């Protein structure tokens, strides 16, 4: 697995996450939709950073103690390096 730092999503990550969405999904979330999650009290979004670049992210909603993963995505340039697994493991640990 490559070395990555997993941090809570911030406004500075939204644009890069939106680009990953477009690379990975046929119906991607919009930049606005992703940014709106920053003010959602039920949302938990984390990003995996590799040398300051958003390599992937995970988002989830916690509603009445049940967690629903909304998306997990890894930039194609960073796949097969354990980033998706690290993101899921991080979410499970919080």
Polypeptide structure, described:
It is built from three helices and four strands. The protein has helices at residues 14-24, 31-36, 83-93, and strands at 5-8, 43-50, 53-63, 66-74. β2 and β3 form a beta hairpin. The two termini are 21 Å apart.
Q: Mean pLDDT, rounded to whole units? A: 95
Please count the helical segments: 3
Helical residue percent band = 25-40%
Q: Structural class, judged by helices and strands?
A: alpha+beta
Cα(first) to Cα(last) distance is: 21 Å
Taking the sheet with the most strands, its summary is: 4 strands, antiparallel
User: What's the gyration radius in Å?
Assistant: 12 Å
Strand content: 25-35%
What overall geometry do the principal axes of the alpha carbons give? globular
Query: Which spans have pLDDT < 50 for at least 5 consecutive residues?
Result: none
The strands making up the biggest β-sheet line up spatially as 1-2-3-4
